[in-house]
Amino acid sequence: MQKTWSGSRVDLHIDLDASKGRRSALESALRDGIRQGRLAAGTLLPSTRGLATELGLSCGTVTAAYDQLVEEGYLTTRPGSGTTVADIPPETVTSPSAVPIPAGPHHDLRPGIPDVSAFPARAWLAATRRVVAGSRSVVFGAGDPQGRIELRAAVADYLGRTRGVTTTPDRIVITSGYYQGLSLLSGVLAQNGAQRVAVEDPSHNVFRAVVQRAGLATPPMPVDARGACVDALTREVDAVLLTPSHQYPTGVPLHPSRRQAVGAWMRTTGGLVIEDDYDGEYRYDRQPVGAFQGVAPDRTIYCGTASKTLGPALRLAWMALPPHLVKPVVEAKQQADLYTESLSQLVLADLITTHAYDRHVRATRLHYRRRRELLLGRVSGITGLTAHGVPAGLHALLTLPTDWPPEDEILSLCARQGLALRGLSELHIDPRGRPEGLLIGFAAPPEHAYRAALDALFETLLQLATNTK
Ligand SMILES: Cc1ncc(COP(=O)(O)O)c(C=O)c1O
């Protein structure tokens, strides 16, 4: 007999074994719940009368079962405070709330992660209140596969104003992260007959894999001091995936001559550009260079994300699409997961239109700029350790002195000191013979923890420098 016991205190699915007597079946069900951790220590059980009514048992049966489990140490009773689950170690299965959270690294210097302790919680909560106080059917009713019009309108305006993107709300599609956007787009390109999407080398391995999973080949374009070597773009290439504002991971912007060469390739071959503008808001020495999309809006898919400005767990990103791709991409989005949930879209739309988003970006830009300067100051104290890229983004690439141990050994050494960072090698398509390096995310730690993270990193690196003298 299966019953869901939803007394006023807890909600628990109880399976009473019909082959046993009623009292014994209830005892077993409670014992199992406690042993497996589904009933956590301290949980207040329903009154005997309440449970008896819910389960169709007599009060005497429930009282006897409770008494038995008190005797066995599974439950405790205190006059006036009811019956609660005792603190016993759970068996094999643990409840979701009891799943141990793995201890994170002591110093988080992973690239690409913003300081989420600076998340604009007050503005977000105020915007949430405004949104929820509005129409419930707008917020909690069916969503839109293309994304909420409120957010599409806010994003189209924001991108035009801050990134020089030429678009309109009907060309914007909201996705659950760039990851999903790129996946949908790759599927649509493959369906339309595309075979090759050129990628930067090095570039983010996760996103290369997304393109490959759609059945597309990813011919590499080496990256030098001017960004991607776009002369690798031939007639056979259908599209190219670029990070033109701040190449990931080297940090160089695409040189104007290369931008022009890409434009010429698009015109002569009809090729498409997928522009990953993942951290375009963060340039520290000058106004950010406008998005490439502004040059060729009808053949560029511009991709932006809230993962760097607000936090990756929001899973909110946007694409500004050429008109011919809007319908197929929206259909692909609908097939994938119907639509991205509405509440956070509406809240973000509110933050953008009230300019709280701009204020947050400006404030974090100042923090990150100072953090990058602190990092580079320390780098300059170690001969042969070299920082690459322009003052921008949330990470810096450091290449290593030639007499240092290999990258993987350095990463292991750093891990032993509680430092989380990333190596360059895994971002090369074929790391053999390619430069090694460290990617230092200077944005990830909370403000108060940044100096300690730098101290720990440079203590380790200085040790290496001394050992190799
Ligand atoms: C190169 C690059 N592009 C884009 C993104 C954003 O991805 P998403 O919006 O799926 O979080 C990231 C985040 O790690 C990234 O490193």
Could you state the oligomeric state of the chains shown?
Answer: single chain
**Which term fits the overall shape?**
globular
| Extended strand count | 18
Ligand list: pyridoxal-5'-phosphate
Residues in helices, as a percent range: 25-40%
Task: Give structural notes.
The chain is α/β, with parallel strands linked by helices. It folds into 3 domains: 2-98, Arc Repressor Mutant, subunit A, CATH 1.10.10; 119-356, Aspartate Aminotransferase, domain 2; 359-467, Aspartate Aminotransferase, domain 1, CATH 3.90.1150.10. Helix content is 40%, strand content 15%. It has helices at residues 22-35, 48-55, 59-72, 121-133, 136-140, 149-163, 177-191, 205-213, 256-269, 323-337, 342-353, 356-379, 407-416, 450-467; strands at 2-5, 12-15, 75-78, 82-85, 107-108, 172-175, 197-201, 220-224, 227-228, 239-242, 272-276, 300-305, 317-320, 386-388, 395-399, 419-420, 422-423, 437-441. The strands form 5 sheets. The chain has an 8-stranded mixed β-sheet with strand order 6-13-12-11-10-7-8-9, sandwiched between helices. Strands 14-15-18-17 form a 4-stranded antiparallel β-sheet, with helices on one face. It has a two-stranded antiparallel ribbon with strand order 1-2. A hairpin with a 3-residue loop joins strand 3 (75-78) and strand 4. Helix 2 packs across helix 3 (59-72), helix 6 packs across helix 11 (342-353) and helix 7 (177-191) packs parallel to helix 8. The longest helix has 24 residues, at 356-379. The N and C termini lie far apart (75 Å). The model has no long low-confidence stretch (mean pLDDT 92). Bound molecules: pyridoxal-5'-phosphate. Pyridoxal-5'-phosphate binds next to helix 7.
